[in-house]
Amino acid sequence: MPDTSPGRKIAFAAFVRKALDDARATRAWSGSEVSRRTGVSRQTVNRWIRADWASDPEAERVVAFCTGLGLNPSVAFGVLGWDTATAARPTPAAPPMDPDVEALLRRLVDPNVSDAEKFHIRETIRYLAYRPLLPSDRPSRRGKAV
To answer: Against a cut of 0.70, is the pTM above it?
Structure first.
């Protein structure tokens, strides 16, 4: 039986995110182009990136996604815990968590917090996580060797 821990979902989300970032960087593909070339809908890919799926992704879709991007599907299967031949990655120690982030996570799992409030928390986190860096946020490259 596959592992159902949130860590597995997060690991697969990171795998998909990296695959998309690589496709954007090396092939200049947009999310729509990745969807067209892999045959996996943008909605499905976005759910994978958000780790927002109740049941495991369909193996056929994972294979189509990987094949379309030139990746070995067994790597994705290993991340999902489906391939016993692939050695499991050691789980790195979790970095210390900011107290504010801990408070948000507690609210997201609190049954007394409304679904509307949880929705707003998630949307705000998504916005902050994926917003472009402001020029003042970017590190200075002046005087650094390339």
So the answer is: no
